[in-house]
Structures are given as structure tokens and as C-alpha cells.
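Q: Give me the 3D complex with DI6.
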Amino acid sequence: MTPSSASRPSLWLNARLASMDPAHPAPYGVLENHALLLRGGNIEAVLPQAGVDPAAFDGDVHDLQGRWITPGFIDCHTHLVYGGSRAAEWEKRLNGVPYQQIAAEGGGIVSTVRATRWLDEEELALESLPRLKALMAEGVTTVEIKSGYGLTQADEIKQLSAARRLQDSLPVEVAATLLAAHAVPPEYAGDADGYIAYVVDSILPLAARAGLAEAVDVFCESVGFTPAQTRRVFEAARAHGLKVKGHVEQLSNLHGAELVAEFGGLSADHIEYLDAAGVAALKAAGTVAVLLPGAFYFLRETQKPPVALLRAAGVPMAVSTDLNPGTSPFASIRLAMNQACVLFGLSPEEALAGVTRHAARALGRGATHGRLAAGCVADLLVWDIDHPAELAYSVGVPQLKQRVFRGSAQNLE
Ligand code: DI6
Ligand code: FE
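A: Here is the predicted complex, encoded as C-alpha cells.
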């Protein structure tokens, strides 16, 4: 929804802020006994409580009575706009049907492509709406949505338009990414290079011209596209002024992260097989490492991302749901935070930074999103918790009391 500069100014008193702002050195950037002044959809000031006089304020006043506030959550990697379900295929796999047979029977990504092509833009938005609403109900205020289940010019544009339609109808900010290079569609079977030429010459230029995507992603993998093909897409993205990011090093190490870094990419995502050279490349380029523990869990993978190396190098680690029908059918950012801690060894503070400050950077929004700081957007969450570690600790416990988007509050009780 367009930022509501019409929201009344508001003052949020007696709060405990998990600001996630590195300007404040305490864990979680904690500021006890503080107040927030919101105006025009932005945070105008972060103030010590003692210096605030609510009587002199002309706007809405909220007394938080010591409740915690965090920045709004940012889910920086999702494929939530799609048609159909792959539950039946998953059931078959669990009953012992081999993957090759499922693929031969039209399963896998191709089945989601078929179901997505079948729907028109409005139906696609409608079918995707509950997934986005579930993320929002947990506190997501900015979400990235990828295409990648259309794989024709018209169907990729349709997916991106459905994402735009969702943003226009709900109090949430959507960052749309073109992932036309997600899989080779049936029409190009055996001709991945031919499909990449179509992506570069036809799909990408139209998505850029229409202003429907701000970034371009590629599935760079043995079962996806080669580094050479990925490079062609990134070069086209650069020529059209779009940022790049990559699904890289998920199942093997093709050095895709180094390629993303070479193009000054926003983020390298999955990265279970990332090595020391890849970590160094991300660090040098200022590229964010996006951890997607939902897919690792659902695929029962064993190779973990090199968290200790990333941490030692000071590469920012974001955490995201990867919400998609094939490998991470989970519309829960709290689950992703918990999985990042349990499966990958992040601390609860790192998990929270992963869905706020670092996720903002992964979307090129580090200056304005993901922190409670003057000048940032007024996207924030009011919690009934005793400590911010609770946010990564449990899943499904209704602790979110208010969700504030661009200064406008939604009560959730
Ligand atoms: N990596 C994945 O794990 C998903 N896409 C990707 O690039 C798979 C998506 C699907 O199976 O539908
Ligand atoms: Fe993904």
C-alpha cells in the first residue's frame, strides 16, 4: 500500500526498544525507557523518556507500559505468488516414489509452473493472499516476492503484476524480483541457452521497462543454470539498471556467490556450500548472505552454511522463509528465525538482526528499513514478551500486540 503520509503523528511512550541499530552497542541495540515520535510515515525521533512531555504533543499518544518494540520484520526472499500445491507430490515422495518418477509424471517446479500459468493475474493474487497475510500477522512489514513460476514473458509479467496488486491492497511493502531464470520451461527442454537468450532479450527488458521488478535473481545450480548463463542474465540486469541477487551454492559449489559479488549484488542466498573464497568475495563486495533454513530442513539437507566463517568475516547474515511450494512451504518468519538458531547455530540476536537490519540491506533498503532510528520508516511491532530472545524461541505463540506500518497501527488482539 502506498506509504500513508496521511497517518496522524504519534508518540509511543514508556517503551523498551530493541532498536537493532548498531549505533547503540547493547545487545539488540536495546534502549530502555524510551519513546518514539512518528510523523509522516517515518520515525522522526527516538527519545529518552525523561525528556518527553506528552501534554505538549499534538497527535496520538500510546503508553506502552514497558512493552517491547522491534522494527517491522522483513522477509527478504520469498516465492509466495504461485498457483496450486505440491502436497500430493510430497506425500508420494514420503511413500517411496522416486523423484525421477515424480518428475516424469510432471511433478516438481514444472507442476507449479503449470498451475501458475493456468490462473489470471487476479486469481493468482487471490490465491497468494493468505500466504502474505500469514506473514503479515507475524509482523512482516516488507516482503520480497520473486517471479519464476511463469517462465514465459506474459506469465512472468503476470506474476510480478500479481505481486504489485498485493502491495496495492494491503499495508505492506513489496520488493519484486524477476526470477525468470529459475528453471528451463518445457518449451525449451534441452535448450537452456536458448531459454536464457529469451530471458535476456525478451522477459527481462519488458519487466525493467514496466518497472515491475527492482532486482533480478538466477537459480545458479547443477539443476538450474550454469555460471556462464548466470553471467549473461546479470549483464542484462546491469544494462537495464536492475540489481542482482542469486540462489547460489545450495546443493553444490559453482562459485555463484563470487559471481554475485563481482556484480556488486545485493545478496547471495542459500549458500550451504559456500567456501572461504566465497565468504571473502561477499565481504569485499558488501553483499549480504541470506540463510534459508526452511529449505534445508524440508529437504533434509546436511551441509550447513559456513556461519562461523561469515560471522568471523563480518558478512551480514539475513534470515528468510524462502516461502515456496517445493522446498519451503512455510509462511512463518518466526519459524525461519527458530530454524536459523536450532539448525544453523545463530544466536537469537543474530536471528532478529537477520529479519530486520540485515534483511533490509539484502533488499537495498539498509538506510531506511530494519532499525528503530530517526529517519527510518515507521514500521514497527509492539510485543508482549519479557525479552527479545523470545522472538526466535517460540513459534505460534500470539505475542504480537500491534503492527505499525508507516505510522498506522493495526491492533491484533
Ligand atoms: N531453490 C529452491 O530450493 C527452490 N527454488 C530454488 O531456486 C525450489 C522451488 C520449487 O521447487 O518450486
Ligand atoms: Fe528461493
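A quick observation: Residues 34 and 160 are 40 Å apart (CA to CA).
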